[in-house]
């Protein structure tokens, strides 16, 4: 766990951590680059509990496991979060490391730093993963999940679409929007156990 400091009073998200005595590096390298910085004045420390929690998660989005698996999916109600958590727990029990975005929560009181940390940690976790499990439940796929699937397809990640909803919205075979269906090889899985078996068979 690092200590973090505000580097610019005009930019709440420009946060750094100390690398060596007197030198610092930006936390969000996606925006500020990976460069060594020095300052001729003392920097104010980040002290907010939620801010530190979000920054720590950004720094290390995955725990230990055979593969990094990104858990894409809606997280805006209790049912979605419960389903996501069950699937993540099952994958972790099977020996995989998962990144579950809902483990750092944005609410109406979240600071800009927390919101930015959540964006950059999701971006970083997608880049670091080998596999994506996408919760595609609902009448329409969640917009954020669709964006994550598109990004993962472009990065050549293996994508497993999870859809346990028994209702059929589009067609008998794919049960997804035609374009999204193409990105997931026109295949959905109705339970996490089948996905685990598929993953184990591919490594």
Gyration radius from CA atoms, angstroms: 19 Å
Helix content: 25-40%
| Unreliable sequence segments | none
Number of domains: 2
User: Which descriptor suits the 3D outline?
Assistant: elongated
- What is the CATH class name of the largest domain? Alpha Beta
Q: What's the architecture of the largest domain in CATH terms? A: 3-Layer(aba) Sandwich
Question: Number of DSSP strands?
Answer: 8
Percent range for β-strand residues: 15-25%
- Following the backbone from N to C, one meets helices and strands in this order, namely EEEHHEHEHEHEHEH
Mean pLDDT: 91
At the fold tier of CATH, the topology name of the largest domain is: Rossmann fold
DSSP helix count?
Answer: 7
What's the main sheet like?
A: 5 strands, parallel
User: Separation of termini?
Assistant: 31 Å
* Strand order, largest beta sheet: 5-4-6-7-8
If you had to describe this structure to a student in words, what would you say it looks like?
The chain is α/β, with parallel strands linked by helices and 203 residues long. The protein has two domains: 4-47; 68-201, 3-Layer(aba) Sandwich (Rossmann fold), CATH 3.40.50. 37% of the residues lie in helices and 16% in strands. The protein is built from seven helices and eight strands, in the order βββααβαβαβαβαβα. A five-stranded parallel sheet has the order 5-4-6-7-8, with helices on both faces. β7, α6 (178-183) and β8 form a beta-alpha-beta unit. α2 packs parallel to α4 (112-128). It is elongated, with a radius of gyration of 19 Å. The chain starts with a strand and ends with a helix.
């Amino acid at each position: 766990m690092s200590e973090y400091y505000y580097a610019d009073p005009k930019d709440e998200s420009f946060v750094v951590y100390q690398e060596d005595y007197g030198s610092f590096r930006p936390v969000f390298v996606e925006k500020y680059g990976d460069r060594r910085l020095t300052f001729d004045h003392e920097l104010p420390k980040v002290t907010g509990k939620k801010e530190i929690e979000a920054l720590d998660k950004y720094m290390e989005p995955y725990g230990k496991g055979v593969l990094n698996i990104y858990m894409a999916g809606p997280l805006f109600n209790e049912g979605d979060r419960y389903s996501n958590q069950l699937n993540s727990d099952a994958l972790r029990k099977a020996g995989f490391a998962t990144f579950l975005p809902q483990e750092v929560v944005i609410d109406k009181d979240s600071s800009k730093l927390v919101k930015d940390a959540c964006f950059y940690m999701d971006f970083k976790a997608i880049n670091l993963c080998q596999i994506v499990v996408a919760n595609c439940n609902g009448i329409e796929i969640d917009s954020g999940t669709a964006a994550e699937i598109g990004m993962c397809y472009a990065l050549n990640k293996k994508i497993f679409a999870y859809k346990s909803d028994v209702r059929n919205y589009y067609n008998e075979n794919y049960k997804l929007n035609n374009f999204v269906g193409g990105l997931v090889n026109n295949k959905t899985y109705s339970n996490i156990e089948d996905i685990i078996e598929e993953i184990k068979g591919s490594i």
